[in-house]
Amino acid sequence: WHLMLSQMGYIIMSVDNRGTPGPLGSKWRKYQYKQIGIVNSADQAAAVRKIREWDFVDSTRIGVWGWSGGGTMSLNCIFRYPQLYQTAMAVAAVSDERLYDTIYQERYMGLLNENQDNYIKGSAVTYANQLKGNLLLLHGTNDDNVHYQNFEVLVNELIKHNKMFTAAPYPNRTHSIYMPPNSRRHVFETLTWYLKNNLPPGPVE
Questions:
Q1: Per-residue CA distances from 119 to 19, 56, 91, 204 (Å)
Q2: Does the annotation count 95 as an active-site position?
Q3: Active-site entry in 41, 95, 143, 147
Q4: Consecutive sets of 10 residues in the chain, 205 residues long: mean pLDDT of each?
Q5: Which of 58, 59, 175, 183 does the annotation list as catalytic?
Q6: Beta strands 134-140 and 63-67: pairing type?
Q7: 161 is catalytic
């Protein structure tokens, strides 16, 4: 899919933030501890600020997308840094860290009653009122990993602040949105359609 997008004229980049597995030492790996959603989105924003300086990049057409944790990152990026991102597409994203699996969330964020402020600061839904660009939300209603209530909580917050967005629930689909047949294709057809209509490809004018 990324290759197809590049053939259409999009520039595709993937940036590793601090904490990404690599031979960079314990401090690097543990930098995000108890700060999930806060420092990683800040790192992504720092990278985009540099990328925007390149003469072959149109700084007015920056998009971000992801699935699961990547979808969560996409929400954090466009909500926290609306001046940097024009479009975000989030599939099966965690909008509120208090609603995610304890085996993961508590491992990296600590217990809620001991780190509640950062649970809130790290959650994308906290900053949904800052949305300025284009937002696409996709989520399976029977998600077995990121519970569907993450989708509903975010939608309600966006409505509360009169923010426009596009959303598609996938009935009875799990986190992978793989079955019934054609589900996965429909997801990527939708992503492609949304990009072409909201963040069209092409050279810098």
A1: 18, 38, 21, 39
A2: no
A3: 143
A4: 96 90 80 91 97 95 97 98 98 97 92 95 98 98 97 98 98 97 98 97 76
A5: 175
A6: unpaired
A7: no
Per-residue confidence (pLDDT) for residue 65, from 0 to 100: 98
Q: Tell me the DSSP string of 80-149.
A: H-TTT-SEEEEES--S-GGGS-HHHHHHHH--GGGSHHHHHHT-GGGGGGG--SEEEEEEETT-SSS-TH
pLDDT of residue 121: 97
| CB 148 within 8 Å of CB 140 | yes
CB neighbour list of residue 202: distance below 8 Å, 6 or more residues apart: 9
Of 68, 176, 183, 186, the active-site residue reads: 68
The tokens for 33 are 């501890």
188 and 65 in contact (C-beta within 8 Å)?
no
For position 18, what pLDDT does the model report? Answer: 85
* Token digits of residue 86: 């024009």
Which of 137, 118, 12 is closest to 74 using CA atoms? 137
Reply yes or no on whether 68 is catalytic: yes
Element (H, E) at 174: none
Give me 74's structure tokens: 């996409």
Phi and psi at 172, nearest 5°, equal: 65, 15
Q: Is 127 left (phi over 0), alpha (psi -120 to 50) or beta?
A: alpha
Give the other-Cβ count within 10 Å of 59's Cβ.
14
